[in-house]
Amino acid sequence: MSSARAERLVNLVLCLLSTRQFLPAEKIRATVPGYADAATDEAFFRMFERDKTELRELGVPLETGRNSVFDTTDGYRIARQDYELGEIDLEPDEAAAVALAARLWDTPGLAGAAHGAVLKLRAAGVEVDETRTGPVQPRVRAVEPAFGPLLAAVQAGQVVSFPHRRGGPTGEISRRTVEPWGVVSARGRWYLVGHDRDRADVRSFRLSRIAGPVSTLGPPGAVQVPPGMDLLAVVDRGVALPPVIGTARLWVAAGRAHGLRRMGRVLRPLRLPGDHPDADGDELEIDLRSLDIVARWIAGYGPEVVVLHPPELSTAVRQAWAAAAAAHAGALVAPDHVAATAGDVAR
Amino acid sequence: MTGSGLTERLPRLLTLVPYLLARPGVPLADVAADFGIGERQLRRDLELLWMCGLPGYGPGDLVDLSFAGDTVTVTEDAGLRRPLRLTTAEGTALLVALRTLGDLPGMVDTDAVRRATAKIERAVGDAGAAGVAVEVSRQEQATTTAVREALEAGRALTIRYYTAGRDAVTLRTVDPMRLLLVEGRGYLEAWCRRAGAVRLFRLDRVDEVVVLDEPAAAPPDAEPTDLSAGVFPARPEHGSAVLLLEPWARWVAEYYPVEQVVELPPDPADERNGHDHGPDGRPGRRADGRARVLMRYADPAWLVRLVLGLGGGARILEPPELAAEVARRASEALVRTDGGTRGVGPG
Fold first, then answer.
1. A78 and A114 part of one domain
2. Which chain B positions have a beta carbon within 8 Å of A324's beta carbon?
3. What residue in A sits closest to B205 (Cα-Cα)?
4. Count of domains in chain A?
5. Residues B333 and B269 in one domain
6. Is residue B178 in a domain?
7. Does A250 lie in the same domain as A234?
8. Contact A210/A163 with Cβ under 8 angstroms?
9. Does residue B266 share a domain with residue B292?
10. Cβ separation B326–A141 shorter than 8 A
11. Tens digits of residue pLDDT in A192-246
């Protein structure tokens, strides 16, 4: 059954590729093997409609038209220059780049499509060796179950709806309806970018926060992506670090706080006053972004760092230490009683 | 999944003829492997094609094949000389992959990538590359270039590497094995002579790299890293801690891998709840409660630094000795900062 249909479709493609004239359906019925099996006109037209849809879904550019004003019905043909992959000739280093690109995707939808593209290139006589893996292996993966359905919806231009978890693994779940514009990988995480119909605004959604099946709403082709849309910029707005608003100066202990040293510039050796045993260190200058973020980076280093400037940063870091000390005070006094019991959590 | 479904089979049938035309006498086994099907399915496909042809369907109009041993040659193509052009999905998968590679200077030959991209864009026509974008970290071009050169020349390397877990910078001599892009970041996979094991080094933490004259000599039994569970899979030797996260520190549970997430009601006594800010300075939401999570860590000092930086946003419930360490370091930091800044700078 499937074989007969595949054979009929191949014959239909060959027939329509070989004609310059638009062929009316009746002519196709009489010519292409397989259609003669249709017992009635109705059965034939049903068959033919399904075949046309199949070919169009495959990307076959099926044209409809009339050869002259005297024709009473539409005819069909496939223009060869629209059907055929254009001439392409890759140098060996370009072919190697294409092979590397085809192996980039570690995600079913895109990997399959890239492989299909390479097969066509190879059928066009371009030698692309997908199997030779060198020591350079860039991969982009998507493990989120929502990835495949969202990519398909983006490519079909179809509105989607999905349950979305706000702010972390146990956050509250709400259903969102989105006109999907694209899927974006930034900093190793996948996002959906689109127009959120509920919020009436542009939004990005982390795929890992989509908490259930993605369903499509309405017909394909309904989504209009605004011209010049920069998908990455939308995601960056949500995840980028805040801009630099000044500089901070710190004392960092000798040979310590390497994480901070790597993000800043050592100005000079500096010894803390007083009689601390580990008072030797350096004066370090770092970029000041949001006070919260920089305070968090600095506070993690504890006694290995002292904020010299600005005072509001010093205050923020001091507050972090005071809060951490308060939250863990019990642990210092009586370590034996800090078991993680439910009662302790609720305290 | 045998490749006999029509939506897989029809494009394959249309690609097979030009593919074989470009490779007279190709072994059947190679064709089957390229198309990802078994030899039996391939033979069925070829038998089907052999029945197809141009209207007239006489000798000379049909696709003709000749078999010699286990090889096949197309002798009549019935007009299927070129593959069908790429579908939108295929064009997108390949072109977005190429653009991603084009953003990886140092790791790949971006000049060849650019030339290949231009040629493929020309050949595929309308099948653009919309709806998918990938952003990769691209700050460490010089390091990446040096690593790639060492890989290509088969040389060992000395690297100055920042280990975030221990907050330490070390000099290591390594035998490079692979250059990887995983989750948007570049990694060097190498045999570390110091550790006597295969290690992944994040390229943005390699502060200096020297290509040595001596050849790379990873032991023959050095196994490439299994990345199927991500870059930081849980290992039995890792410690685990139970953390209580306040609402404004809930992002930790999404940013780092955690297990056993338990949702807890908001703490009514906590005045920070509801008007504080997230890690990126955006306002938190009142409705969120606290969460108890289990977090794995390779190095206890790393966890202490994280919790100290969160300033009371996270409390270590287990193990008690780490909770005590946070309290101790927070108190020490307070003592030092209150006594240490006097007389240093404008303060």
1. no
2. 307-308, 310-312, 326-327, 330
3. A262
4. 4
5. yes
6. yes
7. no
8. yes
9. yes
10. no
11. 999 999 999 999 999 989 989 999 999 999 999 998 888 988 888 877 778 889 9
Does one domain contain both B268 and B330?
A: yes
Tell me the C-alpha distance between B245 and B10, whole Å.
55
**pTM, to two decimals:** 0.83
| Over residues B29-51, mean pLDDT | 94
Question: Which residue from B278, B284, B310, B297 is spatially nearest to A326, judged by alpha carbons?
Answer: B310
CB atoms A182 and B130 under 8 Å? yes
Q: Does B29 touch chain A (CB under 8 A)?
A: no
ipTM: 0.84
Please state the φ and ψ torsions of residue A150, each to the nearest 5 degrees.
-70, -40
Q: Do the domain assignments include residue B24?
A: yes
Distance CA A254, CA A280 (A): 6
- Domain match, B200 and B252 both: no
Residues A258, B168: C-beta atoms closer than 8 Å: yes
Residue A145 lies in a domain: no
* B6 closest CB neighbour out of A2, A171, A296: A2
Among the partner-chain residues A231, A242, A309, the one whose CB lies closest to the CB of B345 is A309
Tokens of B39: 């030899």
Question: What domain range is B318 assigned to?
Answer: 239-338
Nearest chain B Cα distance for residue A61, angstroms = 9
B205 and B253 share one domain: no
Q: Evaluate whether residue B144 is within a structural domain.
A: no
Q: What is the distance between the alpha carbons of residues B180 and A138, in angstroms, rounded to a whole number?
A: 5
Q: Is the pLDDT of residue B288 over 70?
A: no
- Looking at the partner chain, which of B116, B323, B342 has a beta carbon nearest the beta carbon of A331? B323
A96-110, A233-247, B189-203: segment of lowest average pLDDT = A233-247
Which amino acid, A322? Answer: A
CATH code at A229?
A: 2.30.30
Cα–Cα distance, B207 to B146 (Å, whole number): 12
Contacts A326 to B, Cβ<8 Å? 312
Of A217, A238, A259, the residue at which a domain comes to its end is A238
Report yes or no: B115 at the A interface, CB cutoff 8 Å.
yes
Q: Tell which B residues from 247 to 306 touch A, by Cβ distance under 8 Å.
A: 250-251, 253-254, 258, 261-264, 277-281, 285, 287-289, 291-293, 304-306
pLDDT in tens, A170-190: 677 899 999 999 999 988 889
pLDDT the model gives residue A310: 95
CATH of the domain at B170: 2.30.30
Which distant-in-sequence residues (6+ apart) come within 8 Å of B199 by Cβ?
Answer: B174, B189, B190, B191, B192
- Determine the structural domain holding residue A287 and report its residue range: 246-346
Average pLDDT, stretch A115-136? 88
**What is the DSSP annotation of B214-251?**
EEP---TT-PPP--TT-SS---TTSEEEEEEE-GGGTT
Mark whether A266 and A340 lie in a shared domain: yes
Number of domains in chain B: 4
Instruction: Tell me the per-residue pLDDT of B242-277, one tens digit each, with 9 for 90 and over.
Output: 999 998 888 888 888 888 778 777 665 554 444 444
